[in-house]
Amino acid sequence: MAKPIMARATAVWLVENTTLTFKQIADFVGMHELEVQGIADGDVAAGVKGFDPVSNNQLTEDEIKKAQKDPRHKLKLKFNPAAVGEEKRRGPRYTPLSKRQDRPAAILWLVKLHPELSDGQIGKLIGTTKPTIQSIRERTHWNIANLQPIDPVALGLCRQTELDAAVQKANARKEAEGTAISDDERRKLMSTEESLGAAPEPRIPTAIEGLETFTLGGSKKDEDEEDKRDVSDAESFFNLPRGDDADDEDDDGR
Rounded to two decimals, what is the model's pTM? Predict the structure, then answer.
C-alpha cells in the first residue's frame, strides 16, 4: 500500500486536527500505533510542524469524515497520476548524517549473520559502498578493532521486511546455484532481540596482544621432571640446609 509523503508530519496534523483513532492514523502513514500515541502525548515528534494531507492532495475531506464516523474504516491515499512509479527507489539508499557512523557496525552484523547476502544487496539495504563492505569482510577497515555487530533494523538503517526480502532472494539464488546454507547454519542466525541482548565479544587490549599464551609457571617438561622426583626421603624432599646449631652439637659430641 502506498504511503503519504512526510509521514510523521502528516501524522502530527491528523492527531491535531481530526478525531481519527491512533490505529487509523498509524495504518495510513505506516507508523506503529504506539508511536502515534506518543505524538498525541507529546513524547514523539516534538517540534514537528503538521503537514496537511488535504491541501497537499493526499487525502480528501470526505475520506476523513468517513473514517471518523467508522473506526474500522481505513484511510485511502488519494490517487495522484503524477506519482505513479515514484515509489520505486532509484539509486542507493539515502542515509541520514546522524546514522552514517552506524553503517560499519550494521555491515559487520550482516556479513557475520547473513553471509548469503551479496555486496550489492548489503549496499542497497543500508546505503553503503562496495569498497566499505569489502574492507569489513577482509577486516582491513580502519576501525575494525572497535566495531561491534549491530542489527541494521535496530539501528533504523532498514526495515525488517526489506531485510527478510533480501535474505529470501539470496537464499533462492544460493539454492539455484546448489550452495544454499544448511539448516544447522540457519539455526545459528540470531534474531533482532537476541542480537540486541547478546553480550559484546571479549577483546584483548592492543598493548598486550601476543601475550595470550603467556604463563608465569614453568614449562610442561619442568613440571613432569618435578613430578618424577624421588620424595621417599623427607629430608631430601624438603632439602633443608643444616644450620650452625647442628654443627655445634656435632662439636660437643666429640
Answer: 0.40
